C-alpha cells in the first residue's frame, strides 16, 4: 500500500534502520514482511515469538524523532495487543483508534476491544466506521452494503468520541493497489473528505493531550 | 448470524452439549461467546489458554454424529491455526477452505496462509473470493469495489481449486444482521447462486475424498 515491498531493513549502531517510503523520510516503516526471505513465507509463530518481536520493534528500531508512532494491529484482544500495550506503556501512548464496520457482528467484536482498552488502562482516541456505504459511480445512489450506523452507536454507548465514517471507495482501493498517494491523486473522491476529517480530529486530540 | 446469542452451553456425562440453532438440531455450535458472562467481555488471553480451549472444543464437546465440522478461524497463521490443525490431525481433516478478498494486500496475506497449509500438511479444498464486486440495486451496474480477480489468480498460482466468487450483497448482510436464513429468504439474490455453487463443490470434494 505504501509501495515499499522488496525493501530491506539494515542494521546500524543504534539498532535496525526502518524502511523509508520517500526521500524526505516523512514515513518510516517496520514490518515483519521486510524480514522474510520470500514474500510468500508464512510466519508460523506462536505468541511468545510474536511478543519478543513486538518488543524489539518498539525498543530496537532506530526510529529517530517521530511525530506519531502508529501500530496497525490485527483484530482481537490477544498476544499482539497485550504485548503492544505493555511495550508502549513507558511512552505514555495517546491511545487507540478503534475501527469497526457498520454491521452487528463487527460492532460486537469491537465492543470487546473497547472493554480490552479499559481493562488495560489504554485511552480511546475514538471510533472510526469503515466500509460505511457505497456511492455507485454509475448512478450516484448510496447503498449501505454492511448495514448502517453501527460505529456511531457503539461510540455513544461506550462514551468515547466518534471520529467519522469512511465509505467504500473504489478509488481508494485502486490507490492502495498501486502504492499511490490517495490524498494527492483523488482530492475529490468520496473517501477523501472523511479521511482528512478523521486525521484532523486525531491531530487535535494529540494537541489537547500534550 | 445464526440467531444463537444468549444461549447457554450445558454439561452432560459425555462433555459439553453444543448450542443447537433449530429444533431439528441440524446445526450444532460451540463458541467462546457462549461461555462469557456478558457479551461485552473481552477475552484477554495469550496463546496457551486459547490453545487449551481449542483442544477442548475438539475433544470435550459432545458433538454426536456430524456430517461436517467447520472451524471458522481468524486470519493469520499463528496459535489458533497451529492448534486447530494439531487437534484435528487424528481425524484426518478434509482440508482448508481459504477465503480472500480480491485486492493485492489481502491476496498476499492469504498466499502466506496457503504456505502455512503446505508446511502443516493440511490439504487445501480451494480458494473463495469474497466481497467480489457490487451490483448496484438502483442501476444494476457492477463495480469492483476491491479490485478484481485476485482470488482466481491466487488459486491458479498455488495450484489449488478456485471455488468461486461471492459478491458484496446487502441482502446477505441484512440476513446475517437479523439471524435469518439467507438461502430460504433470498433465492434470487446475487450471492445466492455463488454460495450454493461453492457449497456444492465442497460437498463433491468431500464425496470424492471419502
UniProtKB/TrEMBL annotation, chains A, B:
Gene3D superfamilies: P-loop containing nucleotide triphosphate hydrolases (3.40.50.300). It comes from the Eukaryota. PROSITE patterns: MRP. Keywords: 4Fe-4S, ATP-binding, Iron, Iron-sulfur, Metal-binding, Nucleotide-binding. The keyword Mitochondrion does not apply. GO terms for molecular function: 4 iron, 4 sulfur cluster binding; ATP binding; ATP-dependent FeS chaperone activity; metal ion binding. Pfam families: ParA. GO terms for biological process: iron-sulfur cluster assembly. One of its GO terms (cellular component) is cytosol. CDD domains: Mrp_NBP35 (cd02037). This is Cytosolic Fe-S cluster assembly factor NUBP2. It comes from Eleutherodactylus coqui.
Amino acid at each position: 500500500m505504501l509501495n515499499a515491498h522488496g525493501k530491506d531493513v539494515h542494521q546500524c549502531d543504534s539498532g535496525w534502520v526502518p524502511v523509508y517510503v520517500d526521500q524526505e523520510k516523512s514515513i518510516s516503516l517496520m514490518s515483519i514482511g521486510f524480514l522474510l526471505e520470500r514474500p510468500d513465507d508464512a510466519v508460523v509463530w506462536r505468541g511468545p515469538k510474536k511478543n519478543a518481536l513486538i518488543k524489539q520493534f518498539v525498543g530496537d528500531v532506530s526510529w529517530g524523532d517521530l511525530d506519531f508512532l502508529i501500530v496497525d494491529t490485527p483484530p482481537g484482544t490477544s498476544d499482539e495487543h497485550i504485548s503492544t500495550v505493555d511495550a508502549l506503556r513507558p511512552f505514555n501512548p495517546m491511545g487507540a483508534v478503534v475501527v469497526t464496520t457498520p454491521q452487528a457482528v463487527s460492532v460486537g467484536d469491537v465492543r470487546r476491544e473497547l472493554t480490552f482498552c479499559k481493562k488495560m488502562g489504554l485511552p480511546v482516541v475514538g471510533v472510526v466506521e469503515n466500509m460505511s456505504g457505497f456511492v455507485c459511480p454509475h448512478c450516484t445512489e448510496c447503498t449501505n452494503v454492511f448495514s448502517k450506523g453501527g460505529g456511531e452507536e457503539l461510540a455513544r454507548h461506550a462514551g468515547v468520541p466518534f471520529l467519522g465514517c469512511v465509505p467504500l471507495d473504489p478509488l481508494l482501493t485502486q490507490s492502495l493497489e498501486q502504492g499511490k498517494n490517495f490524498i494527492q491523486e483523488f482530492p475529490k473522491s468520496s473517501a477523501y473528505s472523511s479521511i482528512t476529517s478523521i486525521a484532523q480530529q486525531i491531530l487535535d486530540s494529540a494537541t489537547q493531550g500534550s
